[in-house]
Each structure stands twice: as C-alpha cells, then as structure tokens.
C-alpha cells in the first residue's frame, strides 16, 4: 500500500495554500498508510542561508543547542519550531561547520537540508502528523507527502518517508524493493552510510550516489530502472520541482492531474478531488519505466 | 429516476439500495452524484437497471456486475467491471489497470485508454477499448473478445488460452505463446457485432484490424517433455 501526494504550483497565487492543499490530499490516503507520514515542503529561501530540519527528542534543551551553534558559528542562528522538529537558518558559508557541530548532539537527527526544502516526518495517523507539524499553515511552490504502510522494515520515525537524497532533494516510495540489501552493500563500499534497514533509504542513497558521480537527476532516475528490482512508484522532490518514476511492471498506482495552475500527483484520484479546477483538469496515469519531471521555469 | 448524492450518502448505502431491488422493481434508472474517486461504487448488481455515475470513480466500480448497465461519466480506477457476469459497463473516460479482469460475460466499453493488464484472465467478457491498452493486456485470457481501436502495449496476450484479440493499431510486442492469426470472414462478423454493440455502427472498417490468439504450445502438455518432470 502506502500513499503519495505531490503538488507543484504553476500559479504563485496558490502558494500560501500549498500546505493546506497537501494536508487535504494526504487525508484520503490515511487508509493506504496509517502507520506513519511525512512531507517535504519547498518554501521561501532566505538569501545566503541554508535550512537544516532537525528532529529533537521529546525532552530536549533547544536553547543549549542554539547557544552551542551560535558560539561555533560566531553569529545568530534563526530557528522555527514545528512540533518535534525545528528548522534552523544558517549562513550558507557556515553550513559545513554547522553540520559538524550538530554531530555533537547525538540524539538530534538531521532530517533534511537545503536552501528551500524542509522535511517533517513522524509515526502516527497521517492526519495527526499533519496537524502536529502545522502543515496547513505552510506555504511554498511545491511539496511531496507520503503515508506509510510498512512492509520491508519496522515502523519507526527513521523509516518514515521522505528520505533525503542530498540538499533540497528527497524521495518518497510506494512499493518494496527486493534487492535493497545487495544495493546497500555496494553503496556502503562507495562510502555511503545508512541509518535504517529500510529499502527506500537505499533507493535514496542510490540516487545520491549517481548524482555524486556527476549524473543528472534524469540519468539517476533512469539508472534506477536497471539497478533496482522490485515494485516502486517514486516521487522525487528537487529545489525546482518534482519527478515521477514507475517501475516497468507498474503495479503501484499513480494518477497525475494537470491544470494551468498546478500539477498534482496522487496514488489515487481520491487524493486530488478537492484541488482547484480538478473538474476540468487533464487526469492521466504516468507510463511505466518513464521519467517525468515538472520544474519551475 | 432516483438520484443518490455520495456527498450525502455512503457507497455502502448506495450499494445496499441497489442490492435490494427485485426483478420487478420500477426503480430502473439511477443517477449517482459526487463519486469523488470512491471505491466499489455499484458493485454486485443483479437486476437490469441503469446506473449513471456523474464523475470519476475509484477501484472495482461495477465489479461482479450481472444484468445491469453501469455508465461512468469520467475515468475509472483499477479493476472496473472486474469479474463481470453479464450486462454492460461503459466508461466514458480512461480506465486504470486490470479493467474487466476475470470477467465471465457482458460488455465493457471504454471510450478512452485502458492501462496495464486490461482483460487479465478474462473468461468470456467482451471488451472494446476505443483508445489504447497498456502492457500485459489479456494476460492468461481464457475466453471472450478484446477489441482495441488504437495500440496495445508490451506482451499482449501473454500465456493466452482461447480469447480473441483484435487490435487496429500497433502492437508493441506479443507475449509468450501469442501469435498473429488470419482475419477470416467469421472474425470480421464477430468484430462487426462487437463494434456495433459498442456504439460504433459502421464508423470503423473491420478490415483494419489484425487478429491475435494462442499458438497453443504452452497450455497443452507435450509428451516429449515428460522426461523433464
């Protein structure tokens, strides 16, 4: 099972409603993935700054972390709290330093990083997860979300999607990979590290490795067709938009709706029914083994 | 005409009302509003009633249909008219995968395209797709007819038994044990009947189709293979 919702706005007037629309899309997908949920939102950037989304333990002294970072970086550190997650705003030139400083806080996980991407994910009913993070109040140009019904690995926050594949990049997956252990071993030999036994984390790592080798995202997605065995519909978020890839057998459902104001992806059409203009939208299924990309011009 | 608004009633309430109809019921024309992609709309109907659904439906719409006519004025999700026994299901938009799966009888007409596995394991249903069908359509198809006015995807008719396949456009590839066969007069008559039933009276030249079926090498046991078991 699992459910995916992706939303890409062509009309900037819709941007304040992005989170509200995504929450509405995820809601009918609760019953496809009731055990955990997550989403990546591509919001406004602060020029010259990068964002780190961190997951904090339930009892945690955030002030101590912020003070430690301020001391390390020698300047102010912006922050915004969303439930168990906090989004830090760090001067771009200090990003590597901040990442090193954050490793001192072992109980803190870096969920995502980038100029615009923020990632939030937790165990629980997707509607509850959306509410706890305040998804409805978030704005931006595009977003992808996922509701998980675990098959290949345990129900944990780290096993929830999206998985980050690099700065401003993330991946969500409906399906299961059957050769993820073999691919993981190869990627570990190349120097990648993994936090979970999860198959989707391997797909994310695979794409990261292909990009590090100098390939384009399209090439990395095409390489998935040769190297990943199993069922998958992937939606991959990038700073400029999102891409879709279905395996050649295409068992896992996928529906796209496009209007002159937006492009929306849903595992089922039910996820799309409340979007503006849906009655006159072009609705279709992405073809198997075909890379699709929608990006800002 | 009775109208059921699925923004106010549940799918279960709709289906229960349809299942309660007896053979002599006067309530023979139903209109269903606001389907919003919900699953299992108008499944298991057993009386000759007309049900029109205004919009897109989710999975398994009109599954197990017997005698009824179900019209979807939009797209249909997976498994539309799956295991249909008789009657007619007409999708005015596109259909997702496994349209008409395992159907025993009746007619399924899809005005748009059908995606993968259309007519998988069909057992006597007639399916007319006015657009194209996706990969692995008519997989293990046992009986009935699949007519495609445009193209067919990869591995058409893989492991086919005795269903008849007619495609007017390009076939991307044929599956195991599926071969092209001559289009004889009897097949042209069969095609004419199917196209007429789908409302294409005379609009399409039956001579433009090519016929595909089983080479019958896969499903008969060959005694020369006995040593392999």
Give the DSSP E fraction of chain A (strand runs of 2 or more residues): 25-35%
How far apart, in Å, are the first and last alpha carbons of chain A? 34 Å
Class by SSE composition of chain B: mainly beta
Percentage beta strand of chain B: 15-25%
CATH architecture of the largest domain in chain A: 4-Layer Sandwich
Helix residue percentage of chain A: 10-25%
Sum up the structure in keywords.
A: 297 residues; alpha+beta; Glutamine Phosphoribosylpyrophosphate, subunit 1, domain 1; Alpha-Beta Plaits; 5-stranded antiparallel β-sheet; 16 strands; 24% helix; 33% strand; B: 229 residues; Pectate Lyase C-like; 11-stranded mixed β-sheet; 11 strands; globular
Explain briefly what this protein structure is.
The complex is a heterodimer of chains A (297) and B (229). Chain A has 297 residues and is of the alpha+beta class.
What report would you give on this structure?
The complex is a heterodimer of chains A (297) and B (229). Chain A is 24% helix and 33% strand. With 297 residues, chain A is α+β, with helices and mostly antiparallel strands. In chain A, strands 7-2-8-1-14-13-15 form a 7-stranded antiparallel beta sheet, with helices on one face. Chain A has a 5-stranded antiparallel beta sheet with strand order 9-10-11-12-16. In chain A, strands 4-5-3-6 form a 4-stranded antiparallel beta sheet, with helices on one face. In chain A, helix 5 runs parallel beside helix 6. The longest helix of chain A has 14 residues. Chain A is globular. The model of chain A has no long low-confidence stretch (mean pLDDT 94). Chain B is mostly beta strands. Chain B has a single domain, classed as Pectate Lyase C-like, CATH 2.160.20.60. Chain B is 10% helix and 23% strand. Chain B contains 2 helices and 11 strands; from the N terminus they run βαβββββββββαβ. Chain B has an 11-stranded mixed beta sheet with strand order 1-2-3-4-5-6-7-8-9-11-10, with helices on one face. In chain B, strand 1, helix 1 and strand 2 form a beta-alpha-beta unit.
């Amino acid at each position: 099972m699992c459910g995916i919702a992706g939303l890409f706005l062509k009309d900037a007037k819709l941007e304040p409603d992005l989170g509200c629309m995504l929450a509405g899309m995820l809601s009918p997908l609760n019953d496809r993935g009731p055990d955990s949920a997550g989403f990546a939102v591509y919001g406004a950037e602060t020029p010259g700054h990068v964002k780190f989304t961190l997951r904090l333990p339930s009892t945690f002294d955030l002030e101590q972390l912020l003070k430690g970072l301020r001391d390390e970086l020698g300047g102010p550190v912006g922050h915004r709290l969303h439930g168990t997650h906090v989004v830090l705003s760090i001067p771009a030139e200090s990003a590597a330093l901040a990442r090193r400083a954050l490793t001192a806080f072992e109980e803190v996980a870096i969920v995502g990083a980038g100029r615009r991407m923020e990632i939030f994910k937790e165990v629980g009913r997707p509607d509850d997860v959306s509410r706890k993070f305040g998804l409805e109040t978030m704005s931006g140009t595009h977003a992808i979300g996922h509701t998980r019904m675990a098959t290949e690995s345990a129900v944990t926050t780290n096993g929830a999607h999206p998985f980050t594949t690099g700065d401003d990049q993330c991946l969500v997956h409906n399906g299961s990979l059957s050769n993820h252990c073999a691919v993981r071993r190869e990627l570990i030999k190349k120097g990648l590290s993994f936090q979970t036994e999860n198959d989707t984390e391997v797909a994310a790592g695979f794409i990261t490795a292909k990009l590090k080798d100098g390939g384009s995202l399209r090439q990395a997605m095409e390489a998935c067709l040769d190297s990943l065995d199993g069922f998958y519909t992937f939606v991959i978020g990038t700073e400029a938009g999102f891409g879709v890839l279905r395996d050649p057998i295409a068992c896992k459902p996928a529906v796209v709706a496009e209007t002159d104001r937006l492009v929306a992806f849903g595992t089922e059409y039910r996820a799309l029914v409340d979007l503006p203009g849906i009655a006159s939208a072009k609705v279709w299924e992405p073809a198997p083994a075909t890379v699709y990309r929608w990006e800002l011009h | 005409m009775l109208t059921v608004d699925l923004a106010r009633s549940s799918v279960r309430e709709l289906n229960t009302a349809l299942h309660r109809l007896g053979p002599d019921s006067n309530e023979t024309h139903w209109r269903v509003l606001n389907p919003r992609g919900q699953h299992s709309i108008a499944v298991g109907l057993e009386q000759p009633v007309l049900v029109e659904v205004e919009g897109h439906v989710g999975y398994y719409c009109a599954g197990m249909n017997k005698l009824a006519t179900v019209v979807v004025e939009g797209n249909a999700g997976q498994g539309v008219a799956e295991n249909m026994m008789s009657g007619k299901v007409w999708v005015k938009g596109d259909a997702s995968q496994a349209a008409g799966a395992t159907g025993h009888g009746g007619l399924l007409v899809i005005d748009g395209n059908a995606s993968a596995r259309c007519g998988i394991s069909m057992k006597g249903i007639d399916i007319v797709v006015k657009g194209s069908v996706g990969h692995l359509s008519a997989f293990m198809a046992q009986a009935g007819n699949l007519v495609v006015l445009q193209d067919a995807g990869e591995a058409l008719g893989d492991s086919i038994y005795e269903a008849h396949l007619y495609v007017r456009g390009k076939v991307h590839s044929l599956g195991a044990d599926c071969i092209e066969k001559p289009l004889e007069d009897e097949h042209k008559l069969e095609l004419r009947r199917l196209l007429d039933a789908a409302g294409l009276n005379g609009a399409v030249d039956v001579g433009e189709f090519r016929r595909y079926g089983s080479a019958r090498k896969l499903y008969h046991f060959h005694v020369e293979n006995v040593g392999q078991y």
